[in-house]
Automatic annotation (TrEMBL):
It comes from Nocardiopsis endophytica. It comes from the Bacteria. This is Resolvase/invertase-type recombinase catalytic domain-containing protein. The lineage of its organism: Bacteria, Bacillati, Actinomycetota, Actinomycetes, Streptosporangiales.
Length: 108
């Protein structure tokens, strides 16, 4: 089975309940797409969940990276695209929960 990792950025003021809700959304999308979420990497002030995520992606070719929205990668669209390319160059594939939700709403 292909490895699947979640990633989210949590600012200092984000309550743990909100983080848990986002992790639940990541797990739900992973399951809907036929993946088991192996681990969720969280960027918090003073930590680099992103660096750990990229190590994991490089060690698991074909891994799927699931994010709640592209805003969790970066605020600027140009940086979001650079990060997407970095994930793909490392052998991973990016799934955006927000984009998947929008597609599902359009199909209804």
């Amino acid at each position: 089975m292909t490895a699947a990792f979640g990633f989210l950025a949590a600012r200092a003021a984000v309550p743990d309940t909100a983080v848990a809700e986002l992790v639940g959304r990541l797990r739900a999308l992973a399951a809907r797409e036929g993946h088991h979420l192996d681990r969720v990497f969280i960027d918090r002030p003073g930590t680099s969940g992103y660096a750990e995520l990229m190590k994991a992606v490089r060690s698991a070719p074909g891994a799927v990276v699931i994010v709640p929205s592209l805003d969790h990668l970066a605020r600027l669209e140009s940086l979001q695209e650079l990060i997407r390319l970095e994930i793909e160059e490392a052998g991973g594939h990016l799934l955006d929960v927000g984009a998947q939700s929008a597609v599902m709403r359009e199909e209804e």
